[in-house]
Amino acid sequence: MVDELSGSSTPAPPEAKAGADAPTVLVVDDEPSNLASIEKIFQRDGMRVLTASSARAALDLLRGHRVEVVLTDLMMPGTSGIELLRAIKQLAPDTEVVLMTAYGTVETAVQAMREGAYDFVEKPLKRMTIIKSVRKAAERRSLVAENRSLRQELKLLTKREIIGSSPALRRVLDVATQAAPSSATVLVLGESGTGKELVARYIHDHSARRHGPFVAVNCSAIPETILEAELFGHERGAFTGAFARREGRFAKAAGGTLFLDEIGELSPSVQVKLLRVLQENEYEPIGGDTVRADVRIVAATNKDLRAEIAAGRFREDLFYRLNVIAITVPPLRARREDIPLLVDHFLGVYCAKNNRGRLEAPREVIARLLDYSFPGNVRELENVIERAAVLCRGEKLSVEDLPESIRESLAAAPETITFSVGTPLDEVERRLIRETLRYAHGDKSVAAQLLGISTRTIYRKLGEIEG
Q1: Which residues are bridge partners to 51 per DSSP?
Q2: What's the rounded Cα separation, in Å, for the pair 98 and 119?
Q3: Which of the residues bear the PTM 4-aspartylphosphate (predicted)?
Q4: What pLDDT shows up at residue 280?
């Protein structure tokens, strides 16, 4: 066996020390001499080696060690190599398996490959053949693991989520968290680009319908003439061009959530049908019979619906049906303290998307972004960071990587703070300190000068607030 494995009469190479990234191979054979010979070969090649004389012993080792490749004899007493292969794929699916097979059992080895084996080597074994096969199996396992890790990382980076910890955003999420478990209709209000759809998805993900579909419809993006059919579906022959039956978005969202964005753009006829859904939980596809609606509706708009009602463009009864729980998403200028977090998130997304190293945003870039009013809100900030990630030539963003409108913007004026009559003085003081610190970008000395108090007082007051 040793002669067969060495493949020549030349002296065996000295044993190489296994490196930190060396693959671990588990050799399984019921013949002790074969185990010893193969173990020496892999050790000389710098691999870590485990040995087992039975399938049971091999599985015990797999439970306690990370093994890249199992090299096992196909024909063994008791549990065969095929049965061991199946057990390995259940216990450690990522581990690659190479089979050793004698002449006359090649067909069985091919069958084993259909069940997940990576390769097979025929006896009599040759040293370079088994090293090459095991090395390739280890490389494949490493590539599969790396690809899975990259896909997961990219998925996490590109998954659109709500980023921020500002008080204004926390208040929105508190209401959304409370509303999510209910079946109540939610109306999400806010300017364009503030993330109204993200709030709708947050509500869906925290509801009992989270395992159902989330179907989003931009009512302003679909022509008025086909919006009704798009929402409610139609039967074959219901109108000219309806050559086949088609499901609408309500049917596709069954068991889940239907998000109606830009709800203020609905035509009067569609408003009537939507009102029926909200009142009766049913609708009629065009040319079809009544269908039960199994959806939770979340709507959104950047319009003032009360003004639309006054102008006769939106039904008042529909508004009150939609406005069971209203959530107003704050504009980015009202949550400037979230800008550094958003910048870091978008840099991660677009550096990965453009296959470049992770960029940093130095203080002067963040300061310039904080001074800009962002009329396009988070969507505009995202576009700005994507542009900067593409154009940046160094390892850090510079002010020159920002659009001219931001480079030349003046510092934003401080916002007016309003208080209700009867607000306790300590609450007034608390909000003034927090808002002034936010305006001063966290600089306590500047905040103290603006408030006309000492820096020591700022620290003392912060201690009282945080305590």
Answers
A1: 27
A2: 5
A3: 73
A4: 93
Residue 3's pLDDT band, with cuts at 50, 70 and 90, is very low
Query: 160 falls in which pLDDT band (50, 70, 90)?
Result: low
Secondary structure (3-state) at 234? strand
Helices (H), 354-443: 363-371, 377-391, 404-407, 425-439
Task: Please state the rounded mean pLDDT for residues 119-133.
Answer: 88
* Beta carbons of 441 and 367 less than 8 angstroms apart: yes
Facing residues of 168 across strands?
none
More confident residue, 344 or 102: 344
Q: Using the 8-state DSSP alphabet, how is residue 48 labeled?
A: E
- Strands, E, within 282-417: which ranges? 282-283, 291-292, 296-301, 325-328
Amino acid 430 reads: R
Strand partners, 121: 100
Please tell me the distance from the alpha carbon of residue 45 to that of residue 16, in angstroms, as a whole number.
6
pLDDT at 172: 93
> 296 has which bridge partners?
257
Q: What is the pTM of this model?
A: 0.58
Question: What's 271's DSSP letter?
Answer: H
Question: What is the C-alpha separation between 293 and 297, in angstroms, rounded?
Answer: 10
Output the six-digit token pair for 351: 């550096």
Determine which helix (DSSP H) or strand (DSSP E) holds 133, and give its type and residue range: helix 127-158
DSSP SS3 for 426: helix
State the number of CA atoms in the 13 A half-sphere of 215 facing the CB.
21
Instruction: Using the CB atoms, write b or e for 134-152: b if 16+ within 10 Å.
Output: bbebbeebeeeeeeeeeee
How many CA atoms does the CB half-sphere of 13 hold within 13 Å? 13
Residue 250 tokens, joined: 């309500």
Among the ranges given (168-172, 284-288, 321-325, 453-457), the one the predictor scored with the smallest mean pLDDT: 453-457
Among 28, 42, 21, 7, which residue's Cα sits nearest to residue 134?
Answer: 42
Average pLDDT, the chain: 85
E-assigned strand segments in 22-166: 24-28, 48-52, 69-73, 96-101, 119-122
Q: Are 186 and 298 in contact (CB under 8 A)?
A: yes
Structure tokens belonging to residue 253 = 């969202």
Other C-beta atoms closer than 10 Å to the C-beta of 181 total 12
- Decide: helix, strand or coil at residue 456: helix
Name the residue with tokens 């109108």. 239
